[in-house]
């Protein structure tokens, strides 16, 4: 489950209008599922957004927030309208990526991702999976970084689960849904 390597303490994000939000408030009062969105036009990211958005009724029933953090504004209108049902924040400097991905730098997948695609590897399989679902996208924006999903409990519970992408389209809802749901179910509400 959780590696406990990341923390939401001291991280910042912004609203579309530029208001700075302290990310440590995201899990309050009852927890949060946080999605670092690689690129809002990416069909692989859109697939994951749809899957996570499908959890929203269950999350809402428990007061757990569904939060997306994107590294750019590009494509946010279509993404919000068609793919994402949670709150949406931005980290234009990608400073959230550094501590959450755990290695002090923004993770990228440029060479290996392209190589994997050309050779029919993981990325090509992920794109075929998304294509078979009819999810389309575009190539606009930053396309080299990786993202992930975190489940964060309120207060001292901290990070309960993290899924860091290893390649483009390494969707938590495809590869690790059971652990994701266990983590969500393990969040202790402040009244428990």
Outline of the structure:
This protein has 192 residues and is α/β, with parallel strands linked by helices. Helix content is 33%, strand content 18%. The strands form two sheets. Strands 5-4-3-6-7 form a five-stranded mixed β-sheet, with helices on one face.
CATH architecture, by name, is 3-Layer(aba) Sandwich
Ends apart, CA distance between termini: 22 Å
Report mean pLDDT, rounded to a whole number: 83
Tell me the domain tally: 1
Written description of the protein model:
The protein has one domain: Glutaredoxin, CATH 3.40.30. Mean pLDDT is 83; it is low at 1-5. The chain is 33% helix and 18% strand. It has helices spanning 43-53, 56-62, 76-82, 97-101, 110-118, 122-132, 172-175, 177-186; strands spanning 12-14, 20-22, 32-37, 65-70, 87-90, 148-153, 158-164. With 192 residues, it is an alpha/beta fold. The strands form two sheets. Strands 5-4-3-6-7 form a five-stranded mixed beta sheet, covered by helices on one side. Strands 1-2 form a two-stranded antiparallel ribbon.
